[in-house]
Each structure stands twice: as C-alpha cells, then as structure tokens.
C-alpha cells in the first residue's frame, strides 16, 4: 500500500459542487451527486438525506451500472432501484473493501434537518486506507468530537447547516490532515464563507474548485 500524502489525498478527491464529491481509487465512490455533467460510473453512491439537492435520482441513474451499490437513509432509499442499502446513524457496513460508518447529521437549533428526519453523514475508509468524513447537512453537534478522519468535508454556508465559524470549530475538534469546505457557491454560501472557514481552522484547508 502506498503512503497517504497530502498530494495523494488531493488527487483522489473531486468536488462536484455543493455537497457532491467523487472519491477515486480502486473503488469509485460518489457522495450526494447533483447536477453533474459527466457520466463516470461509480462503484458506491452515498446519499446523506432526502432533500433534492442531495438525493437526486436523475443524477444517480447516469452513475450506475449493474453492480453499483447505493447507500441511503430510509427516507430516500425507496427512490432508487437495484442494490440499495437503507441505513441509519450507528450502522456500519463493508462494500467491496470499502468500510462505511454512518454517523448523525442534524440541526440542533434549526428546523431544516431535525434529528428525527434521519439524515446522516458518512465516514468512508477507502481500499487504500484513507479515512474520509462527509458531514452531510448538519449543524455543529457534539458527536463530531468523536470523529476520527484524515479528511473532513464540512458545510460552511450557514442557513441550513453550520456557518464558517461552526465548521471551523468542528474541524478543530476532529483535527483531520485536511479539511475541505462544502455547501457553498451555488444554493447557499459564498467563497467568503469558505475563506473565513480556512482562516479560523487550525488544520490544513484546501478550497477546491467545483468540477461538475
């Protein structure tokens, strides 16, 4: 196994805009694909919750082949066909050498993503051993203090999720090797939010360009 470096991390992660990412290694993993402009097939597709800018069957259909596995909370799992795994916070599963831990994602003080809605985040450990946390749509929650990850993908746009200050607090709790701001630049949030997040973090931050 090759050593995991900052360069290799950045080479394996593609930000698709908003909360969408592609992680490329021995397995191709998508998280919350939305409004994509390329049809690259994925081995695993993770959906965090049922809002249409995260749970988009029209996007997922272009990324699937017969063996593609979709992982999603119960509220949106029924929108997909094929090999679909319905999950909730606390679950853990292994798919083709990729370990997926399902963690809570909710707003503690807003109505947009209540805990009872069942939205989740994911900690993905790739075949190569890279451990990646995608927070989903969430506020700053105490469960984040227990997260261990090499990479943390954190929403910074405010309104529906953490703002830049809260996301920086999360990153400083988690202490990943790399933090990546998301949930900015399209529906809500601006580059200024991403830059504010970077300035407040005590860890390495990269503001990625969206590659739709």
Mean pLDDT: 93
CATH superfamily annotation:
Ribonuclease Z/Hydroxyacylglutathione hydrolase-like
Q: Total helix count? A: 5
Distance between the termini: 30 Å
User: How many discrete structural domains?
Assistant: 1
Shape designation: globular
Total beta strands: 12
Adjacency order of strands in the biggest sheet: 1-2-3-4-5-6
CATH class wording: Alpha Beta
Alpha-carbon Rg, integer: 15 Å
Strand content: 25-35%
CATH architecture: 4-Layer Sandwich
What this model shows, in words?
The strands form two sheets. The protein has a six-stranded mixed beta sheet. It has a six-stranded mixed beta sheet with strand order 7-8-9-10-11-12, covered by helices on one side. The protein has helices at residues 6-12, 57-63, 74-77, 164-174, 191-200; strands spanning 13-17, 20-24, 28-31, 44-46, 69-73, 83-87, 92-95, 98-104, 120-125, 131-134, 151-155, 178-182. It has one domain: 4-Layer Sandwich (Metallo-beta-lactamase, Chain A). It is globular and about 45 Å long. α4 (164-174) runs parallel beside α5 (191-200). A hairpin with a 2-residue loop joins β7 and β8. With 212 residues, it is an alpha/beta fold. It contains five helices and twelve strands.
């Amino acid at each position: 196994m090759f050593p995991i470096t900052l360069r290799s991390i950045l080479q394996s992660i593609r930000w698709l805009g908003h909360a969408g990412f592609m992680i490329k290694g021995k397995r191709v993993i998508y998280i919350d694909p939305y409004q994509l402009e390329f049809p690259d097939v994925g081995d695993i597709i993770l959906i965090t919750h049922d809002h249409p800018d995260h749970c988009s069957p029209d996007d997922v259909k272009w990324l699937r082949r017969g063996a593609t596995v979709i992982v999603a909370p119960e509220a949106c799992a029924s929108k997909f066909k094929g090999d679909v795994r319905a999950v909730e916070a606390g679950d853990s599963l292994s798919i083709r050498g990729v370990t997926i831990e399902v963690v809570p994602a909710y707003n503690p003080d807003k109505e947009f993503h209540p805990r009872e809605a069942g939205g989740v985040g994911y900690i993905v450990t790739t075949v190569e051993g890279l451990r990646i946390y995608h927070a989903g749509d969430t506020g700053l929650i105490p469960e984040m203090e227990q997260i261990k990850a090499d990479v943390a993908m954190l929403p910074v746009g405010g309104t529906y999720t953490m703002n830049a200050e809260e996301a920086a607090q999360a990153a400083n709790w988690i202490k990943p090797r790399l933090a990546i701001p998301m949930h900015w630049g399209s529906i809500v949030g601006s580059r200024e939010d991403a830059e504010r997040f970077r300035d407040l973090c005590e860890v390495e931050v990269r503001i990625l360009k969206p590659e739709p």
